[in-house]
Design a protein that fits this description.
BirA Bifunctional Protein, domain 2
């Protein structure tokens, strides 16, 4: 059995993937391999388990989906890399705070390869370039296993972020790799981010299987 499976899910509706990762987590056993799914979503606003809908600032034609992750409201759309981390935290002997830290460090390391200085913030999880958020995080843990994950803004229409208080913070600026001169393809950037996640999470000596669905 491989330690980690990586699945490229392409462009899929948020609600479909949400159900699949929740079902996977509920049904997995102590011998199930961890999985990492990378995907893009059609335009959607998602609310965290305790998210306040007032952070959506007005009427919108963009679908709003209630999720069970942590955090408030965020936006997903094409041109954004979303990676879901389905990890048995007990088996890896890490807690959720450590997982958040490792995810943030992975994104910071990726941005460093593009010569972009970034940092994580203790008061508002995610990764920031100066005062603008470039990557958001939201997780859920069930029976010691994580699901949900991170979203990295690459080359997207950022206008919908103006319709919300991103992550519950009024006036929070949002940025993306395109704004900093990065012109690599989504696939290239995804592969680099996956590499950093595997390095930081300790999967570097594992056999990795790639599935396209």
């Amino acid at each position: 059995m491989c330690e980690l499976r990586i699945r490229n899910l392409g462009l899929q509706e948020y609600g479909i993937i949400f159900k699949k990762m929740r079902d996977f987590t509920i049904q997995r056993t102590s011998t199930s391999a961890d999985e990492l799914w990378y995907v893009q979503h059609p335009a959607v606003f998602t609310l965290g388990a305790n998210g306040d809908p007032h952070h959506i600032l007005g009427d919108t034609d963009i679908p709003i989906v209630q999720s069970d992750r942590g955090g408030q409201v965020t936006y997903h759309g094409p041109g954004q890399i979303v990676i879901y981390l389905l990890i048995d935290l007990k088996r890896k002997s890490i807690g959720v705070r450590r997982l958040v830290e490792l995810i943030e460090k992975s994104v910071v390391a990726l941005l460093k390869t593009y010569k972009i200085d970034s940092l994580a913030r203790a008061d508002a999880h995610g990764v920031y370039v100066e005062d603008a958020k470039i990557a958001s995080l939201g997780l859920r843990v069930h029976s010691g296993c994580s699901y949900h994950g991170l979203a990295l803004n690459v080359d997207m229409d950022a206008t919908p972020f103006l319709m919300i208080n991103p992550c519950g913070f009024p006036g929070l600026k949002v940025t993306q790799l395109k704004d900093h001169g990065v012109s690599e393809s989504m696939q290239e950037t995804s592969e680099k981010l996956i590499y950093e996640l595997c390095e930081h999470l300790g999967y570097k000596n594992s056999k990795i299987e790639l599935h396209d669905n």
